[in-house]
Amino acid sequence: MFVAGEKKFGTSLFGFKRADVNAYIERIVREFDQRLKEKDDEISNLQAQLNELRTKYDDFYREAESVIREKEKIAGVLLQAQEKAENMMVEAREKALKEKVHLDQLLESEKEKIVDIKRELKGLKNQVATILTKYEQQIDETVSGIEKQEGLYMQEDIPEDEGEDAAG
Hints:
By secondary structure, the chain is mainly α. The chain has helices spanning about 20-75, 80-155, 160-165, and strands at about 10, 15.
């Protein structure tokens, strides 16, 4: 991240070198675009992980439902088989519940990251706008100074005799 005043610009006859300022602004824009792309890639990766976890959750959930149906079909089977099926059900439900809790936490975390990214982007946008405004003001001041100097030079170039000849 850049801090205002951190960059040193070369100077020319009437202020900062326009090429230095433009290069600095272009570099900031490139770095901002790179960070934005990295954040987009990170969001895409996390979204893919979230989708994969949702698929696993759906698989676990279907598996739990299947176990329940199987339990109903084998109601007449020995007590030991029933206990085993019940244990499998409990385990599947626990896994599904843990996975759901994990997915909910991951989703909330992703939402927070998106809010943070938006906040960071807004801050960067404001920072760039502030820098551009600052340089615009400096350019305006430089132009005003040049115009003032031109006015002074123009007055010095008018000979005093010409003014008297015209009056006389």
